[in-house]
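Running this now, will post back.
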Amino acid sequence: MARILVVAETKDGELRKPTLELLTKGRRDGLDMDAVVVGSGIKGVADQLAGHGAGTVYVADDAGLAIFTNAQYTTAVADAAGQAQARQIWLSVSETSRALGPALAGRLDGCYVSDVTQVEMSGDEVTVIRPAMATKVFQKLKFSKDVIRIVSIRSGAVDAEEAAPKGANVVELAVPAADPRVVAKEVLKEETGEVDLGDASTVVSVGRGVKGPEGVALVKPLVDALGAAYGASRAVVDSGWMPYNSQVGQTGRVVTPDVYFAVGVSGAIQHLAGMSGSKLIVAVNKDPDAPIFSVADYGIVGDLFKVVPILIEEVKKHKG
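Update: finished.
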């Protein structure tokens, strides 16, 4: 079976959880995997990648790669794919992969499928499953055997396992030349101090049922008590009650936490597309016929303005 190249993503010099999930899946399935990591000051993650199952770790480490630019990162990953003779490239679903995946397909004359939830392999045949039409249907797609298969895989499909670092077989890649037409000067980050939706094991999201900024503020202590990330439906964001980067749904973030609280969320299909992969869903809504209850594991039919304070009190009691 041909080798698989996992494109590792880092944040503040540490491997992101979705990368470890991809390596865990490959290790569980007995697949031959390599990894490639591109950035600045990231050589230290090579041993961690090796510990999680990467046979060879291809590293492009240079100060000029500190900020993602599609041309340089595509060149580095394509170089690693060529040296590894990889016939599959796995990426996690992220802003980076949305840019990198199609560019790699063009560079390598491959085929790219995004937002995959399942990869099935039988010999040289590779089939992937992905949700479509806001999760109303699931597509089952089979790759041609003669192309490089490039897929981005949703986080949460596999739980990342702990693994001790070990000495990596490191291959240093040549630093790709910068595209003189594109100059990335800086990345502006909003420093909120809040838990990021993509990294959170627990997410609390609010919908139109909170009725306004006062309702958003009412639910915030529950978010803090749970150590959760704070999300919102599109209606809340469009109303200006929460920032855009908190939006969960088809046109926002796709999240797959261990626990997802939907508070005052009706459950429109567009919102379900962004959170239905959560392992456990708890819904609070006064409408017993709200669509959110069709996907919820636990539901509370009641006025959120009365229910949420009780939840906050109970969570604090549990945590002592």
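The chain has two domains: 3-172, 202-319. More later if anyone needs it.
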